[in-house]
Automatic annotation (TrEMBL):
It comes from the Bacteria. Keywords: Lipoprotein. This is DUF6279 family lipoprotein. It comes from Natronospira bacteriovora.
Length: 285
């Protein structure tokens, strides 16, 4: 689906900041983004011909807006990150600014498409509602199985290895000191997967009830915006962990980025430049 490819540069930008890959906020937004196109419709809903046509038409309109408005914003973020990388500007305030801009862009693109998502959900018939509930349950089962696998003694070590692999894919070979920094950051990230899953289940059940009770698209829109963007009714431990995760991410980046050698900087800058080039091609298509 083209829309998914259009959204990926923003998430790729998040990947550039390394530790956001392990941040549940990044994972949370990425999962929400999967709702914004044909893949979401195919995975969660059995739509009739008219509903599929509505989605295609709305997404075609959004692609033009995305190309003219959102793509230049993403390009500006990438160009700023490249400039700071090449000039060695790794001050805490600079990094915080990039992360805040990325978060804002993700939120803006979510808001762009919430009306379409809400309209489709409000229009589901009883059979489609039942299918949506079944597919939610399938995802819950998969998540619970993943949580069960975490009980193994080597899960923490696997988590550290994933952090290191992600960093090496962006930077190339790491020094022993860099590996130690990344490992400390992995260990410092709070793990709230079980609590997050329970909150997600509660939010999904509320959404299913609203659809079944015939709530309007506007009310579903408000509910999704509160859930996905404002963490409305999020339990306090999850809220605290989210803030802690943001602080750890910022501190770890401020600690790691100044240690990059020229080869690592070049590799990262090349990746960012490739994203920017792909975006320019998208704008011109």
């Amino acid at each position: 689906m083209r829309l998914s490819r259009q959204l990926r540069p923003v998430f790729a930008t998040l990947l550039i900041f390394l530790f956001l890959l392990a941040c549940s906020r990044a994972e949370f937004v990425y999962e929400r983004a999967d709702w914004f196109g044909a893949r979401w419709a195919a995975n969660y809903l059995d739509l009739d011909r008219q509903q599929r046509r509505q989605i295609r038409d709305e997404l075609a309109t959004y692609r033009e807006f995305h190309r003219e408005v959102r793509v230049p914003q993403i390009q500006a973020l990438l160009e700023s990150a490249i400039s700071d990388l090449e000039s060695g500007h790794h001050e805490r305030e600079t990094i915080a600014g990039h992360l805040a801009t990325t978060e804002t862009l993700l939120g803006d693109m979510t808001r762009d498409l919430l009306p379409l998502v809400s309209d489709v959900l409000a229009d589901l018939d009883r059979g489609q509602q039942a299918q949506l509930e079944q597919r939610f349950e399938k995802r819950r089962k998969e998540s619970r199985e993943e949580l069960a696998r975490r009980a193994h003694d080597d899960w923490e070590e696997q988590r550290r290895e994933r952090f290191l692999e992600r960093a090496e894919s962006l930077l190339g070979s790491l020094t022993a000191g860099q590996k130690a920094r990344i490992t400390r950051c992995a260990d410092a990230m709070p793990d709230t997967a079980a609590a997050q899953l329970e909150w997600e289940i509660d939010r999904q059940n509320r959404l299913l009830a609203m659809i079944a009770d015939g709530y309007s698209a506007d009310r579903i829109h408000d509910y999704l915006e509160g859930w996905w963007l404002h963490y409305r009714d999020q339990p306090e431990p999850l809220s605290q962990a989210r803030q802690e995760r943001q602080q750890v991410t910022l501190a770890c980046l401020a600690d790691l980025l100044p240690t990059l050698n020229q080869g690592q900087r070049d590799k990262l800058a090349e990746r960012l430049t490739g994203y920017a080039r792909n975006l320019e091609q998208l704008r011109n298509n």
